[in-house]
Design a protein that fits this description.
This protein is of the alpha+beta class and about 400 residues long. The strands form seven sheets. Strands 9, 12, 14, 15, 16, 17, 19 and 20 form an eight-stranded antiparallel beta sheet that branches. Strands 1-2-3-4 form a four-stranded antiparallel beta sheet. Strand 2 and strand 3 form a beta hairpin. Helix 4 packs across helix 5 and helix 4 packs across helix 7. The longest helix has 19 residues.
């Protein structure tokens, strides 16, 4: 099932119709708009406007008044907003009532909440009560209906104090939160491979590489350390090549040839040309829940040397190079105006969600900000166009995985 935020539909309607938005239904699928001397009702889908009905002045006034009354009643809980296909309004997850797997996730966890929950997890790792950052985030998600406002951090800290002091337990804390299990499964699907034990090379006092074991963030920013980039939250913005659609990823603008880093350990599932994404890489996490998509890679030399489908890659490895290929049926074409990496994360709770209308893509902007905490340093291999990571890493999930 495809879902669209109301604000994106507003922008789409305004841009495509060049009209004045007068009112919108609570579900966000019906609009009353003014164009010149006339008013129209629009009904929309994920791809934009699909029906327009001209209104007389009397009909327009009637619709406007009735919609205003309806909004007032809804805001006062006098009318319950309808649910579509099991969707719980205000919640972050959508559960298919027949198959009992999650069919939609709005990952709206803020950077601040991610950072605080992560710090509490790491700092309590060797304590009597080890706080799990995903459990803390799921608690706030279930309590706030998936919303992470300014008070979310305070809720996380308060829960951490109560759990650490053994004043309560997680089952007691969440017993009255009907949708806690939904949030935990959804957030675990997003974050489950990012934190854990690992070994990595570091420099000692004599600048000699030594291996050290850590517990913490073992995923990396997709841009190599010391390479500049810029970005903003562009999830859901419009795209028009091929067909009208929403942008289901995150763009990071930089320079041609910037080394692209593997975010999480996994195996290369897809490698090659796509008319939309150009030269691209698709990497599946070992648990099968996450599919990482890296697109618009460099013309002529898009991938790390000898990288092939089926290869096992470790988080922090150099896997490719930034470019601006894509938007063409012809392979190896630079048809993207701005040099950038497009990366996206698709969640899979059931095999039916691997492709088609059941696909789940999340907003990666807060995750990208969070992953800045861990950047993999790369070095140029002399007399080649290749870069490689400086500090090797041993990820237990790589050793544990069996095809």
């Amino acid at each position: 099932m495809l879902c669209v935020r109301k604000k994106l539909l507003r922008e789409s309607i305004k841009e495509n119709c060049r009209a004045i938005l007068l009112e919108v239904s609570p579900r966000g699928d019906t609009f009353v708009m003014s164009e010149g001397k006339h008013a129209y009702i629009y009904q929309t889908t994920i791809f934009g406007v699909n029906m327009r009905t001209k209104l007389s002045k009397a009909a327009f006034l009637f619709c406007f008044v009735m919609m205003a009354v309806f909004l007032v009643l809804v805001s006062n809980d006098r009318i319950r907003r309808p649910a579509d296909d099991g969707y719980i309004p205000g919640e972050a997850v959508l559960v298919n009532n027949e198959s009992e797997f999650i069919t939609w996730v709005d990952f709206d966890v803020s950077y601040e909440a991610l950072s605080v929950a992560y710090d509490l997890d790491v700092s309590s790792y060797d304590q009597d009560v080890h706080l799990n950052w995903i459990e803390l985030l799921a608690y706030v998600g279930a309590k706030n209906g998936g919303k992470f406002d300014k008070n979310a951090v305070n809720l996380i800290k308060k829960a951490a104090v109560e759990l650490s002091s053994k004043k309560t337990t997680l089952p007691e804390l969440t017993k009255d939160l009907k949708h806690y299990d939904y949030y935990y499964e959804a957030y675990e699907a997003v974050l489950g491979g990012m934190v854990g034990e690992y070994e990595i090379e570091t420099l000692d006092d004599t600048d000699t590489k030594v291996w050290k074991k850590y517990y913490g963030l073992k995923s990396f920013l997709p841009i190599a350390k010391d390479f500049s980039y810029s970005h903003y939250d562009d999830f859901g913005s419009s795209r028009n090549y091929g067909y009208a659609r929403n942008h289901l990823g995150h763009d990071m603008m930089g320079n041609i040839g910037t080394p692209i880093i593997c975010i999480e350990s996994g195996y290369v599932e897809v490698l090659g040309w796509n008319k939309y994404g150009g030269w691209r890489i698709g990497i599946r996490s070992f648990d099968g829940r996450r599919y990482y998509y890296y697109a618009h890679l460099r013309q002529n030399y898009p991938y790390a040397e000898n990288l092939t489908e089926g290869d096992i890659v470790t988080a922090g490895d150099v896997i490719g190079y930034m470019g601006h290929t894509g938007y063409s049926e012809v392979e190896n074409t630079n048809n993207i105006e701005i040099v950038h990496l497009h990366w996206g994360m698709q969640l899979i709770f059931d095999d039916s969600q691997r492709s088609g209308n059941g696909e789940i893509w999340i907003d990666c902007y807060p995750l990208t900000r969070f992953l800045y905490k861990n950047r993999s340093k790369a070095e140029k291999i002399e007399n080649t166009r290749e870069w490689r990571r400086v500090f090797k890493m041993i990820d237990p999930s790589v050793k544990a995985w069996k095809p």
